[in-house]
Amino acid sequence: MSDTPRLDWPSRRDPPPDWRRGAAAVAALSFDVDAETPILAVDERYATHLSTMSHQAYGPRVGIPRILELLARLEVRSTFFFPGATVERWPDALSAVLEAGHEVALHSHRHVPLVQLSPDEQRADLERGLAALAAHGVTPAGYRAPLWQQTRYTLDLLAEYGIRWDSSLMDDDRPYVIDPGAGRPALAELPVHWSLDDWEQYAFVPEPDIGQNIELPRKVLELWTGELEAMRATGSLCLICCHPFLTGRPSRLRNVERFVEFARGLGDVELLTCGEVAARVLDDPAPS
Ligand SMILES: [Zn+2]
Fold first, then answer.
1. Domain extents for the chain?
2. CATH number, domain 28-282
3. Which of 140, 114, 119 is closest to 129 using CA atoms?
């Protein structure tokens, strides 16, 4: 008979009580600029599948310019998570996001789920991702694990490398503070959920199996607005996660516009970037 596995939780604590600054709930839009990385992380032989690569290239090629145009028109600042490999293949996408004034955070280097990597491999992937952003003058304050699959060690690494916040865990719908211990600085955690991610709704390619769904945008809008509306009673963070290769398509992008209009129409919801939420959670100065 095996022993019951021990869960290695970091210690966590609540954010300052006024992190919402009087709003009933906070909403944040985030965009994971995965491009080809999730496919090539499965097997690099897919680099020769031109149709599959074109499906992913739609993100930086078409999705990003449209998303930036929409956010400018709505006057919303957002957070864009870049894998280092995307930065190397699509530097113009990063430049466009930076020029538009949005926040950039790191989304690993190769988009390999961290649970599949050894500690040394995790460290090497983080260093490569940071170097890819540093080549463009970006020092990210935030991180999101590929497929939201990280380990306890990931949090130690993030703190060691000066990352201030993470957005990969699901044990709450309100942000909180993680104390990694061993003298490492605290991290803010901005929890996510599969139901607020466009991947589970729209991801479909014949192979590899990254999802088998093409759902109606109006169903997705109902899911997201329903959650935000209810979160006003629980004082939560409604963190929407979109992918330019999926949500860049016309009817799906209109959903983002309708979500922002819905949030503003409620009158008691604040729209922030992830970094702005994290700064409040950690009592740091607001990011510029
Ligand atoms: Zn991703």
1. 28-282
2. 3.20.20.370
3. 140
pLDDT confidence bin for 2, thresholds 50/70/90: low
Listed in sequence order, the residues at least 6 apart from 238 whose beta carbon sits closer than 8 Å to its beta carbon are: 25, 26, 27, 28, 196, 224, 227, 228, 231, 263, 269
Cα–ligand 1 centroid distance for 268 (angstroms): 30
Q: Give residue 7 CA to ligand 1 midpoint distance, Å.
A: 25
Q: Is the pLDDT of residue 1 over 70?
A: no
Give the ranges where 146-214 is alpha helix by DSSP (H): 152-160, 199-202
Closest CA to 66 of 207, 209, 257: 257
Instruction: Fill in the amino acid letter for 95.
Output: S
Interacting residues of 228 by C-beta distance below 8 A, sequence separation 6+: 25, 27, 238, 259, 262, 263, 266, 269
Q: Which two tokens stand for residue 80?
A: 């864009």
pLDDT tops 90 at residue 288: no
Q: What is the pLDDT of residues 198-233, one digit of tens each?
A: 999 999 999 999 999 999 999 999 999 999 999 999
How close is the Cα of 17 to the center of ligand 1, in Å?
31
Q: Is the pLDDT of residue 97 over 90?
A: yes
pLDDT at 284: 84
The contacts of residue 17 (CB under 8 Å, 6+ apart) are none
